Amino acid sequence: MSWNTDPVWDAYEPYVGKLGGLTQEQAASLPLADEYRITFSKPISDLTFTADPTMTLVPTVRIVDDYTVVISISGGTTIGDGYDAVINIGR
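^ thats the sequence. predicted structure below, dont judge the formating
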């Protein structure tokens, strides 16, 4: 997952919650997150999903049902160009 450098999306920089007018500290103290849902066409119950802790962006990854994974980036998290995440999928 690499940050999209298109200027249209740069409104979301430099941290999650900035677009809502919050300071980085305010955003970090709220139950706020950018969430990305990925729905698979086959069950994923035999798979594991983990964020690579060595990357510049380490989101929370959770399985919500037999077909859906949610990648969540908490409020206040620094985002933007050069902040990348890797989600490892294993068995």
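The helical segments are 24-29.
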